[in-house]
Design brief:
Elements lengths: L3 E6 L2 H9 L8 E4 L8 E4 L1 H4 L9 H7 L4 E3 L3 H16 L5 E5 L2 E5 L10 H16 L3 E6 L2 H10 L5 E3 L5 H6 L11 H9 L5 H4 L4 H8 L2 H8 L16 E12 L2 H22 L5 E10 L4 E7 L5 H12 L6 E10 L73
Parallel strand pairs: 2-4, 7-8
Antiparallel strand pairs: 1-6, 1-7, 2-3, 5-6, 9-12, 10-11, 10-12
Helix pairs in contact: 4-5, 10-11, 12-13
Length: 409
């Protein structure tokens, strides 16, 4: 049985800033772009979250929600230095470390003899060492696989530890809302709800054949996750090759104008994700992905060293010319030069935050809009300024540490 730890620093960029200036600790604080330059919040501390501020929110909206909010510009060199210290601590316990971003990683400690071979005790010791050495807190989840470990790390945020032992997996997963499953976004959650499926226990009542019929290839993944099955290995030193965001729409988009508006919104989210990954210097291509109402897909890309909303809209228009179909899914992303990119791991579909992840519901839809896309329209949209966002931490409940002292098997 594997022993996986998912470590996630709490509001990482903001935590580093509060570490360096303790006077910031008791006031609403965010790191991100300027409101007057269409900036986006990268992360914010928990004081700011009480006002409804969260990562990937526009800085202007954040200021309206919290007029006393202090927004600091990102200091990536400082954050990278802290990240290197943290990752070095992780590697003291295992070589099997898979970074997902500057502040988040999976660790496979199955073969470790440290801390009596206990993943729980290793996680506790890591959290204490990171706090003592780097001055930021880490929330951790311990479980037999990556899927459950990631959910567990969110359970007692901030500065928490939650353990799911092998014999607890079945009951733990059965009680989970399906919206907690990584890869289940708003569209898939809505479809599941319409089928009377709100929990994993209810999802288990559906056969693999039925799920495949209704959700395509993603049906198999749903079948496995509902049973707590996740065989993905921890992939050490994996290089990122791309960073992207995409959204599946409940109602198909019928016009270029509708699609262009969505692309601009996605570019803002992409900027935030790139900043979080520390990959801005390594961008080599920009691409737009389109899935049409008939489930055919196309990708259009160009050479680029930065994101640009107007360029993305131009790529969109070219892609729409390829099929006279309404649009079911849009995505925008960048390809990374492996020789220059920071090695912090590659985002995978099921590791992404649900708000940004693709629904991946490749279903045989019963009804799709047949409206033709206005593919030959001129895209005269104004370019959004690139958001200097550094999206970092999810807003989670302020629960206490689980303090589970019994080592898992």
């Amino acid at each position: 049985m594997r022993k996986i730890i998912h470590c996630d620093c709490d509001c990482f960029y903001a935590s580093v800033e509060m570490r360096d200036d303790p006077s910031l600790r008791n006031r609403p604080l965010a790191v991100g772009g300027r409101p007057d330059q269409r900036g986006v919040i990268a992360t914010c501390n928990y004081e700011a979250r009480r006002y409804g501020v969260h990562s990937a929110m526009s800085s202007a909206l954040a200021m309206r929600k919290c007029p006393d909010l202090l927004i600091l510009p990102s200091a990536m060199d400082k954050y990278r230095a802290a990240s290197r210290q943290i990752m070095a601590i992780y590697r003291d316990y295992t070589h099997d470390v898979e970074p997902l971003s500057l502040d988040e990683a999976y660790l496979d400690v199955s073969g470790s003899e440290l801390c009596q071979g206990s993943a729980t005790l290793i996680a506790r010791e890591i959290r204490q060492r990171v706090y003592d050495t780097v001055g930021v807190t880490v929330s951790a989840g311990v479980a037999p696989n990556k899927f459950i470990a990631k959910i567990a790390s969110d359970w007692n945020k901030p500065d928490g530890l939650f353990v799911v032992r092998p014999h607890e997996v079945d009951a733990f997963v059965a009680a989970l809302p399906v919206r907690k499953l990584h890869g289940v976004g708003k569209v898939t959650a809505t479809r599941l709800d319409r089928l009377g499926i709100q929990t994993c226990a209810q999802l288990r009542d559906w056969s693999l054949i039925d799920l495949h019929r209704d959700f395509g290839a993603f049906g198999r993944r749903l079948y496995q996750l509902a049973r707590g099955i996740d065989e993905r290995p921890v992939q050490a030193d994996q290089e990122r090759k791309s960073v992207s965001v995409e959204t599946t729409y409940v109602t198909d988009l019928a016009t270029l104008e509708q699609c262009a508006d969505e692309i601009r919104r996605l570019v803002v989210q992409l900027d935030a994700r790139i900043a979080r990954a520390g990959a801005a210097r390594a961008i080599r291509k920009l691409y737009v992905k389109i899935r049409f109402a008939d489930f055919q897909r196309t990708t259009v890309e160009c050479v680029a060293d930065a994101t640009n909303a107007q360029t993305a809209v131009t790529l969109l228009a070219k892609g729409l010319q390829r099929r006279a179909q309404a649009v079911r899914l849009l995505g925008v992303g960048v390809r990374i030069d492996e020789d220059t990119a920071e090695r912090h791991g590659q985002f995978s579909l099921f590791d992404d935050e649900a708000d940004y992840a693709s629904d991946a519901a490749n279903a045989n839809a019963n009804a799709n809009a047949n409206a033709n896309a206005s593919a030959n329209a001129n895209a005269n949209a104004n370019a959004n300024a690139n958001a200097n966002a550094n999206a970092n931490a999810n807003a989670n409940a302020n629960a206490n540490d689980a303090n589970d002292a019994t080592p898992p098997p």
